[in-house]
Amino acid sequence: MTGTESGSDDRPLLAVRLDDLFKTVRPKGKNWTNAEVAEELKRANPELKVGGVYLSQLRTGKRSNPSPDLLAALARFFGVSVAYFFDDKVAESVLSQIAAIEALRQSGVRAVAMRAAGMKKENLQAITAIMDQYRQMQGLPPVTDSSQPE
Question: b/e map of 82-103 (b: 16 or more CB within 10 Å)?
Fold first, then answer.
């Protein structure tokens, strides 16, 4: 469960998941407005009936029954499976991958990742342990990724 799917959010699950895509996925490297996404969807699917206002209503939960064609178009636009909107495991996986990509975009993180590429597993584990200590010293929360560097 993501932070936005907590009990404090009373929007329908579809609204939460669509809103998460708008807030976290950046096709072509930019944040998109509802109107811009609607225009892109219509450009790719001229027969599709969609507008910025309707996308806003879907994101807020005021509307909740988009056509299968619109869901498919949204999934294609944001680069996710249509299952993202309905399957908890798929959604969790997608949002986890998005978070990892966003972390790489932050300054300095890419440089660390590039330096780590090709290093032995033992060395990566030692470096990870040091980074965890520095995170703790700065009062940052522990990283919950349980995978070990390969």
Answer: eebbeeeebbeebbeebeeeee
pLDDT tens for each residue of 102-145:
777 766 777 787 788 888 999 999 998 998 898 888 888 888 76
The pLDDT tens digits of the residues spanning 23-53 come to 888 777 778 899 999 999 999 999 999 999 9
Residue type, 108: G
Question: Torsions phi, psi of 105, nearest 5?
Answer: -70, -25
Pull the structure tokens for residue 86: 């309905």
Say if residues 58 and 34 touch (Cβ distance below 8 Å). Answer: no
- Structural contact between residues 116 and 124, judged by C-beta atoms closer than 8 angstroms: yes
- SS3 assignment for 44-89: HCCCCCCCHHHHHHHHHCCCCCCCHHHHHHHHHHHCCCHHHHCCHH
